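Researcher: Here's a chain I'd like modeled. Treat it as a single chain, no partners, no ligands.
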Amino acid sequence: MKYKVGMVSLGCPKNQVDAEIMLKELHGAGYKLVEDAAMGDVAIVNTCGFIESAKAESIQEILELAKLKAEGKIKAIVVTGCMAERYRDEVMNEIPEIDAVVSIGANKKIAEVVGSVLEGEKVKAFDENTNLNIDGERILTTKPYYAYIKVAEGCDNCCSYCAIPMIRGKFRSRTIESVVGEAVTLSKKGVKELILVAQDTTRYGEDIYGTLALPKLLRELCKVEGIEWIRLLYCYPERITDELLEVMAQEPKICKYMDIPLQHCNGEILRSMNRTGDKESLLSLLSKIRSKVQGITLRTTVMVGFPGETRKHFEELCEFVREAKFEKLGCFEWSAEEGTPAYDFPDRVSDKEKSRRQEVVMDEQSRVIDSWCEEMQGRELYVIAEGFDRLAECCFGRSCGEAPEIDGMIFFTTDGKKLTAGDIVKVKITDSLGTDLIGEMIAE
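Model: Modeled as a single isolated chain. Structure tokens:
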């Protein structure tokens, strides 16, 4: 009989790519893959371990599956991903219902591990994190018309609050040939939108080519037939070069969209985070990006409650949010991550105050969004259709200004025309609802 295996993948798109490579390994070994992990003989939880809330989500998912195991509905639980890497021994000790823990460097052994737990064994499969396969074949878990493509792994930035370097290891890029080859394969499968991800996408190629090679990679990807949109996530401000902006402006396939996680704007706080810049330099960078790439949508994330963040520092951050006018912005609270330098920093901000500051930042951003929504009315955008909302009786999708999962949607009428998911059509924006835009499809 074919044993069934299901996987829950949590956290970022980079972790999702890892999950897709593991699914391919399992399929190749003869296991039947099921979408719902609760319906499998073996349930795999590909965990996130970046911040406290992510770890809590991972643990909750494992505990829910542990209940099903106790009821005899599943046979075994395997834990992979960042939390498994970060807490190799603790995971199984704390949750004895777990049958196997697989570090990210041992992902290639996933089929072997599943075979062992089905025979009743308890398994700890650990390997160096640099052994993680980042360019293997995979089974896509996204919608069929878009895919994430990991161009590099690991991180050398060593921000004082971040555990990623010790989880994922040193920064290491794939070759241009490898990335382009995968893009060609994805295109043949019907993928229209490529979303480039890494811990620091803008650092791509520095380790193997001795120079920042993202502009060159983008030009090569733009030559791939069938790919219509190319989107950049996780761009580090220090490495947003004029060359990169020129390529974005010149190449029509590249979405005029850039995700730049800035974390803060105050120079003192940024230095404490082991980052560079200040409010003035960051505003200058954003101004340059917008002047060189007309109509670009900018996304960022900021952090509140970092140790030592005073009321004055926070007020400066709020001013920055008002002045920068990001089209997309997320805000999260600092969490104390053991093993990171910031874990031992003095002058912590209380949980209550961190929560308050997060709410204030998002209130500031909501006013920015209200103004942006007004400006968008009357604009004509190309939108990739994603589905039909039966309640609203209209289609929904995204323009180049919205990344999947993290940004808003565009709801639009089609005057009765049937669309297939993945179709790209022109939509005129007529209204908005919260962070979502509303419009009507128009003829070209």
